[in-house]
Amino acid sequence: MLETSHPPVYYLPLEAFAPDTLHPVSGVTHCEYKGTASYYDVVSGSSRAARGAWTYPHPAPGYEALAATAALYPGLMDSVLVDGEEVQPQEGDFYGGWITSRVTGPFKGAPGTWGW
Question: ∠ CA 80-76-71 to the nearest 5 degrees?
Answer without folding.
Answer: 65
